[in-house]
Amino acid sequence: MAFADLRTDYAGRGAPLFRLALKTGVLTVLTLGFYRFWMKTRMRRYYWSAIRPGGVPMEYTAQATEKLLGFLIAVVILAFYIGVVNLILMFFSFSLFAGNAPAYAVSVVGLVPIFFFAQYRARRYILARTRWRGIRFGLEPGVKGYVWRAMLHWAITILTLGILWPRMTFALEKYRTDRTWYGDAKFAQGGRWQDLMGAMKHVYLGAAIMGGGTLALSLSLSPIWSLAIVMGGVWTGLGLSYWRAESFKRLTEWKTLGDVGFRCHPRGGTVVGIYILGSLAISGLLIALVFGLMMILGIAVSMIDPGVLERGFSNLDNLASVPGWIITLLGVVAYFSVFLFWGVLKEVFIKLPLVRHFAETTEILNPGALAQVRQRPRDEFAEAEGFADALPLGGGF
Amino acid sequence: MQRVGVVLDEGGLRIALPDGHTLDWRLPDLRALRDQADTEALVLAPAGTLTLERLILRDQALIKRVRARAPALDRRAPVTNKGRLAAWAAGAIASVATIIFVLVPVMADQLATLLPPKGERALGDATFEQIRTALGGESFVPVETCEAPEGLAALAKMRARINAEDDLPYPLTVTVLDHDMVNAFALPGGRIIIFRGLLEEAANAEEVAAVFAHEIGHVVNRDPTRDALRLAGSIGVLGLIFGDFAGGTVVLILANQLINAKYSQKAESGADDYAHDKLTAAGLPPAALGTFFDRLRAEYGDAEGLAAHFASHPQMTARIEAALEAQAEAEGRGRIGAPVLTAAEWRALREVCGPGAAPDAPRLDRPDRPAPRTPDVRQGGERGQDSGLGGRKKP
């Protein structure tokens, strides 16, 4: 019996996501960052449930306390490294080289393997806590192989000035995908890295234009060439959006899950549009927010001391009559508001539309084969993604 | 995944599976999944965190009735790993506390004495330039150093009188910066910085000499180097704990300030003691350190409570008392000698940043001045040990 291909619905909406992100963000700031485990869990729960292949929502089943536990474990292990090793490095750096640059360099290099370790372990945790139609995903243990491969590929990519970036992307994606399971069915990453190079073509072109422009500018000193540099920069930026859409499409279509395949048709133009419109919306709203905060600040200050209005706000000394702690408090509130809204708006105007676009353009082929998939055992994994939480790795996922 | 028939009755949901079996979910056991994107549907699960079954309802009338009748729909899953959580939390706190309060300070103390002078020098030079630029404010032009020859000669005379060269691991570099702040501090590698504001605030040359001796005390004890190494060790660990929430730097700096305050208090007392000894040996009044603090306290108040904790200096009252004690002892032994500078030399020192920069007499009668807001000298990265005056800026 042949089943129709499964399309993916997307149920995420800006307003509820905004409320959730703002609420959890405020709680995170108020708890000096400790709510972040709950924030992350709840945000993921929302994003997962929004993606509905064949109309059935994905489910993120992680508990925030699991993440907290994993974080505590990572702190016990990492605190020693970060504290003692950094101090010793700093000492030797100043003893031998009379500067702190070598210490920072060695310290960062020392963290690189831990970074990849954290990345793979975090993925394992996230997949182990992801379900669709009641069936768990999973990632096989294999972090050692991932760490040395990742380091090697990064080294090659850096040595080739980024030209072999698609090769690294492909190799690491293949390593992870070939160890990913859905129930008792295993994913496989097909394709060749050479075929992924084409997805990067606009970035290469943009970089070449910039490089050529720089060369011509340094040779001829004619300012017209700076125009070429700007054009190349814009081209590279747009090319990166194309790369995002195209590399996702190719890597997804080359994946298989037993007899199940995937079709994917994201559009580079849509991705570019999301970035451009999203950035405009975010900057517009942030400017409005800063303006509003300034107004409130000004009104608050003038209520405390009406004389400030006559003297004007142009000079900080004019505010001397207002108690220092009030100024400090208002400043802190303003700082955190801007920081918070920046994060929240990024979720609403960039991440949500991107996920929506990629979800809605992905289809599952031959879904009948999914009926054969059976449940896999639970992956306990006490460490959760503690290392990724302890090190400031950025979003990552 | 399958389509099922659902009937809601008094006891709960009766779920009819396609194969003819039925499931009964009791109403008190029903839980709704939280933070769901699809507002049209209600996803139900039986109680417990590890359950696999999910019931997705889309019929709005049924959803309404279930919401009305299931009592614990929004109850959170119980925390199942409380014991392990508590154990690891204790472990994490213990390990971080050991590292920040024991291991890092002990290692910093040891390593500070082993660091070759050249390395310390580099550390201090880098910090000095950062501080000069940071104090330049919005213009980003580094603050000028003051170099009037007569003033520097007076400073050199003062330094010779304190006579600490034998205690020093490396030669001193003393700089006067053209800035209003009433402060002075020491940086790694024997750098001492005095602000013009301090020269203006001091009532006489003895007070400047006392602060000078105090800073030399920090250099002899290698406090600035120790502090820089300690910072290198502890700030990373703090970053680990607070993560990068809200550009965590602010929290990091505050937390680090709180931790270092304790050591600095010890360092300040140590530098005070050194200054008292040196001043007494040089026949200068140790009480000058006290009178200077006394006047500052009259003008700005003592730091108490939380503010005192952040101020990183033992409360002034205690330090003034210590200075007076040292004075009594010195007088008892008849050790107070000639003034450190002549009147002309003192005037030259006060004008080291240029004539007219300093008023003739210290202005002590400034009523009702608002509490000054204080720029933090240490923004520039590795910090120096300051004079204990908390970096007050003259309004």
UniProtKB/TrEMBL annotation, chain A:
<keyword id="KW-0812">Transmembrane</keyword>
<dbReference type="Pfam" id="PF05987">
    <property type="entry name" value="DUF898"/>
</dbReference>
<feature type="transmembrane region" description="Helical">
    <location>
        <begin position="20"/>
        <end position="38"/>
    </location>
</feature>
<keyword id="KW-0472">Membrane</keyword>
<feature type="transmembrane region" description="Helical">
    <location>
        <begin position="224"/>
        <end position="243"/>
    </location>
</feature>
<feature type="transmembrane region" description="Helical">
    <location>
        <begin position="68"/>
        <end position="97"/>
    </location>
</feature>
<feature type="transmembrane region" description="Helical">
    <location>
        <begin position="324"/>
        <end position="345"/>
    </location>
</feature>
<dbReference type="InterPro" id="IPR010295">
    <property type="entry name" value="DUF898"/>
</dbReference>
<keyword id="KW-1133">Transmembrane helix</keyword>
<feature type="transmembrane region" description="Helical">
    <location>
        <begin position="103"/>
        <end position="122"/>
    </location>
</feature>
<feature type="transmembrane region" description="Helical">
    <location>
        <begin position="143"/>
        <end position="165"/>
    </location>
</feature>
<feature type="transmembrane region" description="Helical">
    <location>
        <begin position="272"/>
        <end position="304"/>
    </location>
</feature>
<protein>
    <submittedName>
        <fullName>DUF898 domain-containing protein</fullName>
    </submittedName>
</protein>
From TrEMBL, chain B:
<dbReference type="GO" id="GO:0004222">
    <property type="term" value="F:metalloendopeptidase activity"/>
</dbReference>
<dbReference type="Pfam" id="PF01435">
    <property type="entry name" value="Peptidase_M48"/>
</dbReference>
<keyword id="KW-0812">Transmembrane</keyword>
<dbReference type="GO" id="GO:0051603">
    <property type="term" value="P:proteolysis involved in protein catabolic process"/>
</dbReference>
<feature type="region of interest" description="Disordered">
    <location>
        <begin position="353"/>
        <end position="395"/>
    </location>
</feature>
<protein>
    <submittedName>
        <fullName>M48 family metallopeptidase</fullName>
    </submittedName>
</protein>
<keyword id="KW-0482">Metalloprotease</keyword>
<feature type="transmembrane region" description="Helical">
    <location>
        <begin position="85"/>
        <end position="108"/>
    </location>
</feature>
<dbReference type="InterPro" id="IPR001915">
    <property type="entry name" value="Peptidase_M48"/>
</dbReference>
<feature type="transmembrane region" description="Helical">
    <location>
        <begin position="231"/>
        <end position="255"/>
    </location>
</feature>
<feature type="compositionally biased region" description="Basic and acidic residues">
    <location>
        <begin position="362"/>
        <end position="385"/>
    </location>
</feature>
<dbReference type="GO" id="GO:0016020">
    <property type="term" value="C:membrane"/>
</dbReference>
<dbReference type="GO" id="GO:0046872">
    <property type="term" value="F:metal ion binding"/>
</dbReference>
<keyword id="KW-0479">Metal-binding</keyword>
<keyword id="KW-0378">Hydrolase</keyword>
<keyword id="KW-0472">Membrane</keyword>
<comment type="similarity">
    <text>Belongs to the peptidase M48 family.</text>
</comment>
<keyword id="KW-0862">Zinc</keyword>
<keyword id="KW-1133">Transmembrane helix</keyword>
<feature type="domain" description="Peptidase M48">
    <location>
        <begin position="163"/>
        <end position="325"/>
    </location>
</feature>
<dbReference type="InterPro" id="IPR051156">
    <property type="entry name" value="Mito/Outer_Membr_Metalloprot"/>
</dbReference>
<keyword id="KW-0645">Protease</keyword>
